[in-house]
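**User:** I keep going back and forth on a fold encoding question. It is easy to fool oneself when nobody else works the same problem. Could you pick a protein and write out its sequence and tokenised fold? Could you put it straight underneath, so I can go through it closely?

**Assistant:**
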Amino acid sequence: MANRRFSHAIAEGDGISVIAAVEDADSARAAEAQRAEALVVRGDPRAVREATSLPILWWASVAPAEAAEVADAVLLSFEELEEEDGRLEALHAAALALELDCAVVVRDEEEIERALERVDPEIFLLSPADAPSGTTPLEYVLDLLASIPAGKLAIADLDVNEDEVGLLQRAGVDGVIVHSHEIASLAGEPPPQV
């Protein structure tokens, strides 16, 4: 089913990709109208799938086979799968075999290094959840970005304004998850009418 490549959507173009966090079909349609380039869904994405042509990243602990029925990418949390029991490797391999993109959530430099050693993911989702006190989530995500090898895709998961989106873009972040209903101002100018 994965005919909409999530990785292509966020790698294409000159700027940073806006990935809209949506919960239902209406918010998915609104995000697409406001020029989001992809969606992230925490609940069941079936209704969202029918409402949009945008690629969907399913943010849930689901089997890759289930995700492949309704999504284009799946998220794996390194924190939840850090035990070296083979689950991370098996889930990652299963997702790729089903032609799903697979993003790995990381919270610190050690998780980045260990994820690279174990599964060498193409996409990292940078979480500021473990930002030390005195460091803003934005600063922490930029610190984490420095540990992501060239050629990998990096997505930031944090609340941002227009200036911060520009800063993330200049630093080399490929996508940002936006939790606001007003994403048009963050998505850049609409394409010219032809």
User: Anything to note?
Assistant: The chain has one domain: 6-178. Strands lie at 17-22, 38-41, 56-58, 73-77, 101-106, 123-126, 153-157, 175-178.
